[in-house]
Amino acid sequence: MPAHITILFPFLRPEFVDSAALSTLFAEHDAFEFSLDRVERFEEGTVWLHPEPSEPFRSLTAAVWRRWPECPPYEGIHDDVVPHLTVSDEPVDLVLELPIAARADAVTLIEEQADGSWLDRWRYELRAVA
Fold this sequence. Notes:
By secondary structure, the protein is α+β, with helices and mostly antiparallel strands. It is built from 2 helices and 6 strands. It has a single domain (14-125), classed as Cyclic phosphodiesterase (Cyclic Phosphodiesterase, Chain: A, Alpha-Beta Complex), CATH 3.90.1140.10.
């Protein structure tokens, strides 16, 4: 799995994905700058990087979920969806030079293959901001 900040997981099976609808939805959202500003840990030990601002990621998640209400984030098991970039599923000590500047200008639909590998299926551009 490549480094990423999840917008919505799980999503539809590939044969049910409406790529045109996703393209239209994401084109309504502005591209944005963000930084990975600190290391955090979830209670179960997962180590992750915090994106700042987080709100644009929350907005993208909410927009996709509104369009496909049958696909709640993380199957609805969390009261709050926390945008994050997972570093490790186990506790580790990290030494990183933070913040790390980044730009979100597209959303990639990543599909798990039968062998457990991941394939970038489609890329959807966010609206360019001058």
